[in-house]
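Re: [help] complex structure
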Amino acid sequence: MKKFMLVNRKAPYGSIYALESLEVVLIAAAFEQDVSLAFIDDGVYQLKKGMQTKAIATKNFSPTYRALEDYDIDKLYVEAESLAARGLTAEDLVTDVKVVDAKTLGELMEQQDVVLSF
Amino acid sequence: MKIAVLVNEGPYQHQASDSAYLFCMAALAKGHEIQRVFFYHDGVNNASKFTEPPQDDRNIVARWSKLAEEHKVDLVVCVAAGLRRGVVADTLAPGFRISGLGQLIDSGIKADRLVTFGD
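Output below.
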């Protein structure tokens, strides 16, 4: 088993990176790897509560983040600096996460075998 | 060293696939092994046999095909990302094959390094 970290850096809508990154997360879990997710920069918006996507005719995939626990993916790290810069707190997010500072997140990345950045 | 490469951007639109190709050539020249190149997101467009750049430009798709032929590099296009974008078995240039995201995870498991090229 290897340690995979998927780093999400982009807003959920506007480009397909976030949606297709989630597909990688689910496959990595299916391969029974040690999977964790990091959310930095605009990637923190992927976890924002209250997304309404009907008006842009795009599938709302917010519920998938809440379902990650069912795939035994419970290591979700959100960078404190990125949240603060956007006026958000952990209360604004759809699921339970660990809020960590950039330095701690860097240390977590150091411990990984594979870091995939989307 | 056993190296796998992930290409996340389409050809010509973005530098990523050029950089990925040049990285592969440099790694091979240094005696490393390229375990696989996996094409994801718009990266799947690197595999389209219908690509026809102007005569005075590099042919990115043909360049990948040549890499596969000369160095036996496994070029894998993600099936789901390909279907979304109309890249399917019938439209593949030589040397590419269609498979699932499992092949990307497999590269993460088997390679010493997995190097991402993208935005």
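Residues 17-30 of chain A form the longest helix (14 residues).
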